[in-house]
Structure of RING-type domain-containing protein:
Amino acid sequence: MKDRVSQLCEPLIVENPCVRLRYWQLITNKLVQCNELLRWCPSPNCSYATKAIYGETRLIRCKCVYKFCFICNNDWHDPVKCHWLK
């Protein structure tokens, strides 16, 4: 996938490092938003994206050690179903 992103985005003719960084942040955010298997970790101080694997439980353990439900993006709430939290 990285090669495909590079093909879509290169050559990047931006010399300002702040603008370049913001550009790549927007590209990354769009990739996470468009992929149903990816989610941003909802922990307030975390910037990791996580990936679910088909057939896996709803529990996601981020690299930051935060545990959350992939379905509803809330704190891990087993055995309570997501719809009961609403």
Notes: The radius of gyration is 16 Å.
